[in-house]
């Protein structure tokens, strides 16, 4: 789809994957005016193709558009485009268990004008690629570096939008953490560096004394669709979930008191990712003996079961393409 001021979104089309030509002055290259989404399609044993909550991704895309001064996109039109694209070649959705088709919708500002002002032209595109199982050898806990120097988002900033700048701001910390053997970074709030926000591409949950706690959506955290789904699932099981500020000290104290039972991340790529270790300012905290917790495993099994069509989709999340 293309957008021009005065004309709106127009010219929907499906074309073979190819390079695109852009003016070097296109605003996206200089001012980062761009938003994106990530979602997955799965093939069931009986050959159906199911997409996980795509309406939520396009709603969130519009939330990001709002923050980045990009014109809204019609959710129904975007959904139709996504379905058409997946239908053009159903073989793209892999059959092997655990694999899926990753779908990346995005918008870039293409107006070739240097000058800090919202673009008057955009392109909306969807690209896709088959992806292997994130945990091909079984679900395994991750080690996470708690970032105490850099920040990713601040109140009033772009943290709740899915836009390139947030990820660009995270690369340095991610690189340094990787050098120390940590695969992920846990971000603290941008003002006090005290409250837990989210992991690089996951929201984060803690089980403390039988209760599940997750940082409240405070405007600088991405409103994860897996996060929302896991809260719904936990509540349907009668497990209380608290959405509130969670300080890093609270977690270390709970660990000392023996009440920090589990931690896990949630996101489209990793689904449910148990956390085996946190390292904050050199102080290591091993959670659940570094093993996958019972609740994390149950959430993982249930969510992947629903996505692959093996379990009943009681909450109405899957959309057939
Ligand atoms: N936080 C960030 C910063 C992310 O990039 C993602 C991945 N989209 C998430 C959280 C998890 O969101 P979702 O469950 O919608 O994939």
Automatic annotation (TrEMBL):
Belongs to the class-IV pyridoxal-phosphate-dependent aminotransferase family. Transmembrane segments: none annotated. The keyword Transport does not apply. It comes from the Bacteria. The modification N6-(pyridoxal phosphate)lysine is found at residue 162. GO terms for molecular function: L-isoleucine-2-oxoglutarate transaminase activity; L-leucine-2-oxoglutarate transaminase activity; L-valine-2-oxoglutarate transaminase activity. Pathway: Amino-acid biosynthesis; L-isoleucine biosynthesis; L-isoleucine from 2-oxobutanoate: step 4/4; Amino-acid biosynthesis; L-leucine biosynthesis; L-leucine from 3-methyl-2-oxobutanoate: step 4/4; Amino-acid biosynthesis; L-valine biosynthesis; L-valine from pyruvate: step 4/4. SUPFAM superfamilies: D-aminoacid aminotransferase-like PLP-dependent enzymes (SSF56752). It comes from Paenibacillus elgii. CDD domains: BCAT_beta_family (cd01557). It is an enzyme of class 2 (transferase). Its cofactor is pyridoxal 5'-phosphate. GO terms for biological process: isoleucine biosynthetic process; L-leucine biosynthetic process; L-valine biosynthetic process. The keyword Magnesium does not apply. Keywords: Amino-acid biosynthesis, Aminotransferase, Branched-chain amino acid biosynthesis, Pyridoxal phosphate, Transferase. Pfam families: Aminotran_4 (PF01063). Its EC number is 2.6.1.42. It catalyses: L-isoleucine + 2-oxoglutarate = (S)-3-methyl-2-oxopentanoate + L-glutamate; L-leucine + 2-oxoglutarate = 4-methyl-2-oxopentanoate + L-glutamate; L-valine + 2-oxoglutarate = 3-methyl-2-oxobutanoate + L-glutamate. This is Branched-chain-amino-acid aminotransferase.
């Amino acid at each position: 789809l293309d957008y021009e001021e005065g004309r709106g979104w127009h010219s929907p089309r499906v074309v073979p994957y190819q390079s695109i030509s852009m003016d070097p002055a296109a605003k996206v290259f200089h001012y980062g005016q761009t938003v994106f989404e990530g979602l997955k399609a799965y093939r069931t044993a009986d050959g159906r193709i199911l997409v996980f909550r795509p309406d939520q991704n396009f709603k969130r895309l519009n939330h990001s558009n709002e923050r980045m001064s990009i014109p809204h996109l019609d959710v129904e039109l975007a959904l139709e485009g996504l379905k058409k694209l997946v239908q053009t070649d159903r073989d793209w959705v892999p059959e092997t268990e655990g694999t899926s088709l990753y779908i990346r919708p995005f918008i870039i500002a293409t107006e070739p004008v240097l000058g800090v002002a919202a673009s008057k032209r955009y392109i909306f595109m969807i690209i896709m690629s088959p992806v292997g199982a994130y945990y091909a050898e079984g679900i395994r806990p991750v080690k996470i570096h708690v970032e105490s120097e850099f920040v990713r988002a601040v109140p009033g900033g772009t943290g709740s939008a899915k836009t390139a700048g947030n990820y660009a701001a995270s690369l340095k910390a991610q690189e340094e953490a990787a050098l120390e053997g940590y695969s992920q970074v846990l971000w603290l709030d941008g003002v006090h560096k005290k409250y837990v926000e989210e992991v690089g591409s996951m929201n984060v949950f803690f089980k403390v004394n039988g209760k599940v706690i997750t940082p409240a959506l405070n405007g600088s955290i991405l409103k994860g669709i897996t996060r929302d789904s896991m809260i719904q699932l936990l509540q349907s099981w009668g497990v209380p979930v608290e959405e509130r500020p969670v300080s890093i000290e609270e977690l270390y104290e709970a660990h000392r008191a023996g009440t920090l039972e589990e931690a896990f991340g949630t996101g489209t790529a990793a689904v449910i990712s148990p956390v085996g270790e946190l390292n904050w300012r050199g102080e290591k905290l091993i959670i659940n003996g570094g093993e996958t917790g019972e609740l994390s495993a149950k959430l993982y099994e249930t969510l992947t079961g629903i996505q692959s069509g093996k379990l009943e989709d009681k909450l109405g999340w899957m959309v057939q393409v």
